[in-house]
Amino acid sequence: MKKLLLNNQGKKQVVIALFGLLIGYLFLALSVHFFIKINSSNKKSGILGSDILLVQRKISNFSTLSLVNPNFTENEINVLKTTEGIASIQAVTNNSFPVSFETNDKIVPYLRSDIFLQSVPKNFLDLDKSNWSWNKNDKTVPIALPRDFVLMLNTFMVARNLPQLSDELIMDVKFKFTIGQGSQKEWFDANIVGFTNEFNAILIPETFMKYCNINHGDLTKMKVNQLIVKGISGEFGKLSSALENKGLEAKNNQMISARLKSILEKTLLITAVVAILTLVLSGLIMMQFLQLLLSRNTYEIKTLYLLGYSKKSITKVFLKYFVFLFGIMGLLGLLVFLCLIPFVENFIISSGFPLESSFTMEPYFAVIIAFSLFVMASFLTATQELKFLAK
Which pLDDT tens digit goes with each residue over 98-107? Predict the structure, then answer.
């Protein structure tokens, strides 16, 4: 029965459809694989930056001459929240109290400096937040050091003919804050819990900033001159235009990272869409091919019905054949995918992007899902056509 029913088929049409399936499976696996790997690697290395921008008013000759107010009012912030391309926006809180920061450890030479502190909402931090909390009974404050400070500290160590410190060693170094002036001074130990690539000031929890501003600062002098802006995913162009139109600017490296991230996400998305469209088109051609095959075998199918063969047994013949075709193309697509992955990953790594070497199951699940949908479509098409021919 198999030879009888599968003999009348157009070779050219099925070859084109199968080639399309192969390309579709391959593109689907590649796009899912690199979407997972790139996002996972970026979360650990931060090479593409986070989803936030630290913005301020553009610096010009007018702002230098104090002709332009660099601070933001509450009304201006509320207007920015409704601007197209901006998902959320928050003010960066600065210290209005005197504060000095010094080393308090024998493994590093004594270093003391008056510094500038900032605090931001917890959800905008680009580090582990599990230890990011403080209350007024605590004498130890969790802090995040900017990368620029780490570079400065190691430069200081080299100038003193001492070895440079790794991130792990720096996190073990003891520091302390001196807050306030005169008899009102308070001292707090500082515990480094991470490093930030997005902010240039030492970060402290909002609760500690509020406590110090109230008890040691001048609340009348508190101004907002920097904002944290989070753009809508996939709409970096709108965010960039919004900032330009509002006379705002972000750090150049943040803008470049955000732009590259947006381009990369769009490229992966387009690849996935092309893969899905290719699979859909190839699937439609295969369904047409199945309908044509059934049409060409109308006489044979009706004869088999008369001989006592059931619709289920005839459906099984066509279904097995198409499951075989879809399965072989899926396996070939995964085989080509496995052969290409080392070369593509080495190319990306040699370009400076630190991809993880972990194994990803998602591409295989994606191919299995596509295969299952094709099998289901084949079954429904064959069942419907044979039901019509049985009349």
Answer: 999 888 887 7
Helix runs in the chain, H state only: 2-5, 11-45, 61-64, 74-81, 147-159, 167-172, 206-216, 236-245, 252-296, 298-306, 311-350, 362-389
State phi, psi for 201 to the nearest 5 degrees: -105, 160
Q: Residue 112 is encoded by which pair of tokens? A: 């003391």
Q: Are 190 and 101 in contact (CB under 8 A)?
A: yes
299: exposed, middle or buried (Cβ count in 10 Å: 0-12, 13-18, 19+): exposed
Beta carbons of 203 and 130 less than 8 angstroms apart: no
The pTM of the full predicted model, rounded to 2 decimals, is 0.61
Residues lower than pLDDT 50 in the chain: 62-63, 65
Give CA 259 to chain center in angstroms.
Answer: 13
pLDDT digits (tens, 9 = 90+) for 295-331: 776 666 676 666 676 777 777 777 888 888 888 988 9
Q: Specify whether the CB–CB gap between 313 and 338 falls below 8 A.
A: no
How far apart are alpha carbons 92 and 71 in whole angstroms?
A: 11
Residue 24 and residue 275 in contact, taking contact as beta carbons nearer than 8 Å: yes
Residue (of 121, 91, 90, 115) closest to 101 by Cα position:
115
Q: What is the largest CA-CA distance in the chain?
A: 107
